[in-house]
Design a protein that fits this description.
Blueprint (H helix, E strand, L loop, with lengths): L1 H22 L7 H12 L9 E3 L3 E2 L5 E2 L2 E7 L4 E10 L2 H21 L3 E7 L22 E9 L4 E3 H4 L4 H14 L5 E3 L11 E4 L11 E3 L35 H4 L6 H7 L55
Parallel strand pairs: 5-6, 9-11
Antiparallel strand pairs: 1-4, 2-3, 4-5, 6-7, 7-8, 7-10, 9-10
Organism: Methylobacterium aquaticum
Protein name: Extensin
Pfam families: Extensin-like_C
């Protein structure tokens, strides 16, 4: 019995140790996180609305959580829906809004001729980086990161990061514009090709990689020239969405040209008169054939005239010549 109690206690302690490693309970919460939230609220960078609502503080497990979290269901003034609602800290929300307005929507208009209306994304989750047990806590643990998996456009077309990164020319161009634009708003941007964990989504966060928060990580390094014009410049779509137009009305029929003599009923109704034509001579009618007519008389056969025979050659003896014989 005593051995069983000792074994159970050891197993319990081992399980608690694994839990502590998984959540990294010994990691300290950096002071700048709470300061960034307070500054964001003081500057009113996020205005609560029906789509962005403040919720109560999230404290734990461990150092995970936020002092002033927000629950987000829509972005861009309600024009862009979220397939699953996000829980985010105050500082990252205005950066996501700016990225959406300054990069995502202009790129959507250029490459697809229509706006993005829905984003499939992930947000708060208390876990280690790349879901690795014992790793340093991810920025998702503090509501300071967003993972974007796909974009849906106004006509229902969906571009996924997993399939579109090497998809059609328009999909590749759109996602690369989105990726490069994110590097101007976030301190960490990881897309397919950065590592094995980000093959199907684009990760963005506001982590501090140095004491002043000036260092940025933007991976992978790609050779791509952005086609987005400077802010305020009219956009010229590369791929225009076809617009349905009704077929033109058929051209009116010129009666005078198609019926120069005005003999059709249509022309008679329209003009009210006809042009007289000279009557054509009656065609000759064949003679009637009687059913019991006698057969025609046979033609007389003329006697052939006798042919004159040629006269026979005269028979005579050979004549001798005094000349030489060959």
């Amino acid at each position: 019995m005593r051995r069983g109690i000792v074994a159970f206690s050891a197993f319990t302690l081992f399980g608690l140790g694994l839990t502590g490693c998984a959540l990294n309970r010994f990691e300290q919460r950096e002071p700048w996180r709470n300061q960034a939230e307070e500054v964001c609220l003081a500057q009113k960078l996020v205005r609560p609305s029906e789509d962005i609502q403040p919720i109560k503080e999230i404290d734990g497990p461990g150092v995970c959580g936020m002092v002033h979290p927000f629950r987000v269901t829509r972005l861009a003034g309600g024009t862009v829906a979220l397939k699953q609602r996000m829980t985010l800290a105050c500082p990252i929300i205005p950066e996501v809004e700016a990225w959406l307005a300054g990069t995502v929507q202009p790129a959507a208009e250029i490459y697809f001729g229509q706006p993005v209306v829905e984003i499939n994304s992930g947000s708060y989750a208390c876990r280690g980086r790349n879901n690795q047990v014992g790793a340093k806590l991810s920025e998702h643990s503090f509501g300071n990161a967003v993972d974007v998996m796909s974009f849906r456009f106004a006509d229902g077309y969906v571009v996924t990061v997993k399939g579109g990164w090497r998809g059609t020319e328009a999909e590749q161009g759109f996602l690369r514009e989105v990726f490069l634009g994110a590097c101007n708003h976030f301190t960490t941007v990881l897309a397919p090709g950065s590592n094995v964990y980000h093959y199907d989504h684009i990760h963005v966060d506001l982590a501090r990689h140095d004491p002043r928060g000036l260092r940025r990580i933007c991976k992978p390094l790609i050779k791509y020239e952005s086609r987005l014009p400077p802010p305020g410049t009219p956009l010229s779509p590369i791929r225009k969405k076809p617009v349905w137009q009704p077929a033109p009305d058929p051209a009116p029929i010129d009666v005078e040209q198609d019926d120069p003599y005005g003999l059709t009923p249509t022309s008679a109704r329209e003009t009210g008169s006809r042009i007289a034509r000279a009557p054509s001579p009656p065609a000759s009618r064949p003679a009637p054939v009687h059913a019991y007519a006698p057969p025609p008389a046979p033609r007389p056969v003329l006697a052939a005239e006798p042919r004159a025979l040629p006269e026979p050659l005269p028979l005579a003896g050979p004549t001798w010549s005094s000349g030489p014989i060959y």
